[in-house]
Design a protein that fits this description.
Family: Belongs to the spermidine/spermine synthase family.
Radius of gyration: 18 Å
Structural class: alpha/beta
Helix content: 25-40%
Protein name: Polyamine aminopropyltransferase
Number of strands: 13
Distance between the termini: 45 Å
Number of helices: 10
Shape: globular
Pathway: Amine and polyamine biosynthesis; spermidine biosynthesis; spermidine from putrescine: step 1/1
Largest sheet: 7 strands, mixed
Binding site for spermidine: 64, 88, 158-161
Strand content: 25-35%
Binding site for S-methyl-5'-thioadenosine: 33, 108, 140-141, 165
Strand order of the largest sheet: 9-8-7-10-11-13-12
Order of helices and strands: EEEEEEHEHEHHEHEHEHEEHHH
Bound molecules: S-adenosylmethionine
Length: 285
């Protein structure tokens, strides 16, 4: 191994990943978490919070395309979007690509994440913070969804893992608040961990969400730096039909958008709802 500085992630004690640090761009404790942004020869710039990788320049497109486009194309007429978390700006960039969207609110607990990701991860937000439809709220997401009078068509919980400030975004209080501020035919999606290693997270979210939503399930994608297999995204709505579109429906909506993505396409949209049997068995316990 070269004499380069090595950064180790051990989200799962005893099994982790490492990155050699070519250059540290920023490393400090914010009011809420330890924030580091560094350069790596393979994955580009990497941002981690409290020792857990949040995003890398090389593979962020998979995660952000899957969490933004699946609910918005499934909804079909989404005009008002709420992003919880999302401080690196990648989710906002993908949501802004939808011309039919008229209003975007992002509720991020840590202003420093927004500030330093704008500076050191400029390709994530790619100018979307200047979008006139955008509104930033610095607040704990659970407080916002339980207090706001605003209503939304899609809520995207682009949160950290359920440790530290992210813990509140995996609670019944948060899920109930999201159900409260969704419009009719609204859709909630959330980052819900790598189910092979964090299966309990998926089971717990599924059980809690089922108390407030008619239709609860997951969809999935493999994102290299969320190591350990496929990442599961929680899905919840009051209308099961929103999860069971025909391929032709999604194809016509995608074509009409004029978008070309690097990971997302209509076949991936439908196929991502197919879940491994071990997860299906765990969810049906
Ligand atoms: N892609 C990442 C993942 O899958 O783990 C998430 C990226 S994004 C950086 C996560 C954001 O959630 C961070 O900016 C963090 O500050 C924010 N966050 C954590 N807890 C929060 C809370 N309770 N309310 C609002 N934002 C929160």
């Amino acid at each position: 191994m070269s004499d380069k500085e090595i950064w180790f992630e051990t989200l799962h004690s005893g099994f982790g990943q490492f990155f050699s640090i070519k250059k540290t761009l920023y490393h400090n404790k914010t009011d809420h978490q330890d924030l580091i942004i560094f350069e790596n020869d393979v994955m580009g710039r990497v941002m981690a919070l409290d020792g857990v990788v949040q995003t890398t320049e090389r593979d962020e497109f998979i995660y952000h395309e899957m969490m933004a486009h699946i609910p918005i194309f499934a909804h079909g007429k989404a005009k008002r979007i709420l992003i919880i978390g999302g401080g690196d700006g990648g989710m906002l960039r993908e949501v802004c690509r939808h011309q039919g969207v008229e209003h975007i609110t992002m509720v991020e607990i840590d202003a420093n994440v927004v500030e330093f990701c704008r500076e050191y991860l400029p390709h994530h937000s790619a100018g979307s913070y200047e979008d006139p439809r955008f509104n930033l709220v610095i607040e704990d997401g659970v407080n916002f969804v339980n207090q706001t009078e605003l209503k939304f068509d899609v809520i995207i919980s682009d949160c950290t893992d359920p440790i530290g400030p992210g813990e509140s975004l995996f609670t019944s209080d948060f899920y109930q608040g999201c159900a409260r501020c969704l419009n009719e035919n609204g859709i909630f999606v959330a980052q819900n961990g790598v189910c092979f290693l964090q299966q309990d997270e998926a089971v717990n979210s599924h059980q809690k969400l089922a108390n407030y939503f008619e239709d609860v399930s997951f969809y999935q994608a493999a994102i290299p730096t969320y190591y350990g297999g496929i990442m599961t995204f929680a899905w919840a709505s009051q209308n099961p039909q929103l999860r069971h579109h025909q391929l032709t429906t999604i194809e016509s909506r995608f074509t009409a958008s004029g978008m070309h993505c690097r990971y997302y396409n209509p076949a991936i949209h439908l196929g991502s709802f197919a879940l491994p049997q071990y997860l299906q068995d765990a969810l049906s316990q």
